[in-house]
Amino acid sequence: MASLPLEPDLEQDHAWLLPAAPAGDPDGVSVVDWRDFASAAAIAEWEELTMGASDPNPFFESWNLLPALANLDRDGNAQIAIYRSQGKLRGLMPVARAARYYGYPLPHMRNWLHHNSFCGTPLVSRGYEIEFWTALLDWADQNPGGAMFLHLTNLPDDGAVYAALHSITADKHRPSAVVHREQRAMLKSDQSPESYFDASISAKKRKELRRQHNRLSEEGTLRYHRHADDYKIDQWCDEFLALEQAGWKGSEGSALACDSATASLFRIAMHGAATRGRAERLSLSLDGKPIAMLVNFLASPGSFSFKTAFDESCARFSPGVLLQRENLALLGRKDIAWSDSCAAADHPMIERIWREKRNIVRASGLIPTFGTPGFELR
Question: What is the signed CA dihedral for 362, 368, 371, 372, rounded to 10 degrees?
Fold first, then answer.
């Protein structure tokens, strides 16, 4: 399996929906229509799960996942696997089935993600990681529906949830393997923002950045802005979408505003995060016009750098790098121990500044009917 291409298409044909668990069973895993888990009561217990999760994942929080499903589950096949223990919600992961895998006709289950969802770790209450995976894998064994394996993508390998999955597959000799591993930039240090920047950037480059900042200041009034609430959130979203679309992503058709569905998701998710104090928005403006913008999703003890954009007409002044220097203030926050860049491996800009790495894996586990025990996650 490791020789297959790296990532299955997310917009491919899907064969069938996941069957729901028997009604009346309050504990164990149930797989439900996500619309049935969007009530005020469901969201309230979802939020409680989020606050007590062993590993944070803002992409699976209610304010982010529900609008993602509403806008991007175009085939209507995604559902939510929920795990309860003693009647209390202890785990949650969006799931789907696909008929093809890397272009091959291999039906399988998977965690449901979209192209702007950068973490696939399920939300699991602290201390319930083993129970969650045991129940989910048992459910998959009992409800294969023709699926040959469970494929999990975008899993950081440094958390308790992944460690529990590793332990379960090893202890029970489940046929499974990591099919791809990559590293992306991460920010994790006890240094001050200033010391970290000095250690990351050469003296020559720091001098050049000071020169660029000074030259940019001569073009007009230069200001940095930082907000962690919903102050002028609609205007900020409008400005970000326009700035991103005006650049190379707009030319290639990958900017959020190029698709009404991704633009809608962005606006709704930003509102949800901002009203909860979970979105830290930074911008650099010249004469009141933003020339660089970014947003971090705050999920203590971590942070996820979701999106960034800059005015390419100002590229000679490196506004994106200047804003990333301001973003190093994350190192001074007592509630944030690390930040995931959510960037592609070997990103040419962020890896010049953020020195640490985070391993991200894709793992596939065969359903015993179709395989011979013996493989382990490694």
Answer: 110
Distance between CA atoms of residues 316 and 224, nearest Å = 18
Q: Which residue has the tokens 């979105």?
A: 279
Residue-level pLDDT at 102: 83
What's the average model confidence in pLDDT over 273-279? 97
Residue reference for tokens 């640490």: 356
- Taking only the tens place, the pLDDT of each residue in 284-312 is 999 999 999 999 999 999 999 999 999 99
Q: What one-character-per-residue DSSP string does 221-269 give?
A: -EEEEEESS-TTHHHHHHHHHHHHHTSHHHHHT-SGGGSHHHHHHHHHH
Cα distances (Å, whole numbers) of residue 110 to 41, 78, 122, 130, 163: 27, 10, 12, 19, 19
Residue 249 CB neighbour total at 10 angstroms: 15
Measured CA distances, 94 to 15, 33, 112, 322 (Å): 17, 10, 5, 37
Which run of H or of E encompasses 184? strand 176-187
Distances (CA, A) of 176 to 80, 111, 170, 375: 23, 15, 9, 5
What pTM, to 2 d.p., does this model score?
A: 0.90
Residue-wise pLDDT tens digits, 315-354:
999 999 999 999 999 999 999 999 999 999 989 899 999 9
Cα-Cα-Cα-Cα dihedral of 185, 216, 210, 322, to 10°?
-20
State pLDDT tens for residues 112-144: 999 999 999 999 999 999 999 999 999 998 888
Q: What does the block give as tokens for 321?
A: 């790098």
Cα→Cα distances 313→13, 246, 251, Å: 40, 10, 14
User: Residue 220: phi, psi to the nearest 5?
Assistant: 160, -165
Secondary structure (3-state) at 29: strand
CB 244, CB 256: distance < 8 Å: yes
Domain with CATH 3.40.630.30 in the chain: 28-183+359-370, 190-354
CATH entry 3.40.50.300 includes domain 190-354: no
The Cα-based distances of 40 to 35, 37, 70, 215, 218 in angstroms read 12, 9, 16, 52, 52
Architecture of domain 28-183+359-370: 3-Layer(aba) Sandwich (3.40)
Res 367: pLDDT: 65
Task: Find all residues with CB under 8 Å of 183, minimum gap 6, and list them.
Answer: 345, 357, 358, 359, 360
